[in-house]
Amino acid sequence: MTPTARSLGDHLREWRQRRRMSQLDLALDAEISQRHLSFIESGRSTPSRDMLLHLAERLDVPLRDRNPLLLAAGFAPVFAERALDDPALEPARCAIDMVLKGHEPFPAIAVDRHWTLIAANAAIAPLLSAVSDQSLLTPPVNVLRLSLHPQGLAPQIKNLSEWRAHLIGRLRQQFSASGDPMLDKLLKELLSYPAPKTAGEVHTDYAGIAVPLQLSTKAGLLSLISTTTVFGTPVEITLSELAVESFFPADEETAAILRSLALN
Description:
This protein is of the alpha+beta class. About 45% of the residues lie in helices and about 10% in strands. The protein is elongated, with a radius of gyration of 22 Å. The model has no long low-confidence stretch (mean pLDDT about 95).
């Protein structure tokens, strides 16, 4: 026997509750009546495809999860999912390569929704030389696992407790927003790693604007702050889930070290 397919109402209700919105909240945001929304959730009314996409937009449903909504309502999927090497995504790949290359001599990486490494620039390799478990560098590389594993970068991170809390907080937020079981599994794995010792950690406030990554290397202590870049108007699933994490020097000493590493 196969499990009963979930109804459109079940899908909508789950996303509405995940966003902590009442029926009235969503109805007001979507500029429809609460009665209409109630009828849609109960199955007494069938929305048009445009209405369903409008509700998904207001609920900030990821593109990957909008197709199941459409299928539950009897519509064909709208959003394609292609492999990153698909010719249709070549302009996006070129854009990612340009951003990564253009950020040198400072490190930058591209990751997917599960924090799997997609690409990295040349400034990343020198920072990984002290990783003791080489299996962590065997593709597919998960950058959160690599960062926090006790045989990965963790021993080099001088403010590990602070950085770990930052990464786990981001992952919790991402899982809360998406409900992706793979993220939940990754979160539990990271939490299972030994708790870092805080004695001797380096903590720098930077006026409260960012959590720095304090990374100890043979060339010296690097102080880095990061930004995340995503495609602004994606209508393709793979592209919508890609992000570029760019690291910037938080002080002149770090900038000088990274420039010198690029020359070696």
